[in-house]
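User: Show me a protein chain along with its predicted structure.
Assistant: Here is one chain, sequence first, then structure tokens.
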Amino acid sequence: MPKKNKEVPRNSVQYSHLSSEYLIPATALLDQFSHASHDLYNRALYDLRQGFFKKRYVKGYSELDSRFKRRYQARESMLYHGLGYVQSAQQTLKEVNTVWQAWLKALKAYKANPGRFTGRPRMPRYLRKGQRHTFFVTNQNAKVKDGWLVIPKLDFKLKLPHK
């Protein structure tokens, strides 16, 4: 896909952000990381759901992130570093938190005015077993060099199309 310049208004100042999105052919290593992302997503959603059921609420992304850090340091769960880069894991946790917060907001709106909805909002569901999940790569763990996208820890190179 071509690169997009997106104008984002912030405090009456325009910032130009350059972002790119590429669909790339699957490899065994990328498949492994997408499955690790899938496992992390489901585990984070499990923690949020169990906290909701047991009235021990997780108070957002920062608490969710610190739980996974503690588990990794105690060697209870290696999911946090299973994606190779912590930033990739953090993006997955932010995604889970966004989905969860959207559901809570919808549930609150439903309780205030059920007539605006066709039914009660459903709690976010787990991803199916064996399914892949988006694995995020940030500018901290990928570099563009001489027309190539390079992800060093994955030993991955992709020739980028010319403008």
